[in-house]
Structure formats: structure tokens, C-alpha cells
Write a structure and sequence with these properties.
90 residues, mainly alpha, 3 helices, elongated
Length: 90
């Protein structure tokens, strides 16, 4: 696992276990394979939604020209600039 997958995994795996536990408790027995896969898909989508903006900011900071705002390494101004210039798709 690369260092860049750690934030994603820190969100995905605990959420996956939580979702499986909740679903198991509601139905009263162990989940089938497809139900566990659904929990994994939801957890993976949530992790991607949460961590992708941070990856975008990291990449922009790494590729920034010296002397620019992004080169300072502050994530919030970088994300603000992406939002202003590209909107949600950025």
C-alpha cells in the first residue's frame, strides 16, 4: 500500500465494518456475500468523495510554480481556487 492510499483506507475500512455491523444487526444474521459487497461499495464511494479533494490539492501543490499561492502549501486556498475556477467538477 502506498502512502497516498492511507487516508482512503482510514475512511473506507472502518466505514465498511460499521455498515456491515449495522446491516447484520438489523436483519439478525450474518450478511451474504453480495450484502457485504454493497457495504464495501458504499464505503469506497464515501472514501473517494472525502479524499479526492485532498488529492487534487496535493497534486496542485506539488506541481505549483515557485512563488505562487499554491506553492505555499496551504490546502484551503488551493481548494478555494479550484472551486472558483472549476466548480464542483474541479
Amino acid at each position: 500500500m502506498s502512502v497516498f492510499q492511507i487516508p482512503f483506507s482510514l475512511v473506507q475500512f472502518p466505514l465498511w465494518e460499521y455498515l456491515k455491523t449495522q446491516w447484520t444487526q438489523r436483519q439478525g444474521h450474518t450478511l451474504s456475500s453480495w450484502q457485504a459487497a454493497v457495504c464495501g461499495a458504499v464505503a469506497g464511494a464515501a472514501a473517494a468523495f472525502i479524499t479526492t479533494p485532498l488529492d487534487v490539492a496535493k497534486t496542485r501543490i506539488m506541481l505549483a510554480k515557485p512563488g505562487t499561492t499554491a506553492a505555499d502549501g496551504n490546502i484551503l486556498p488551493v481548494l478555494g481556487e479550484v472551486w472558483r475556477t472549476r466548480g464542483l467538477s474541479g
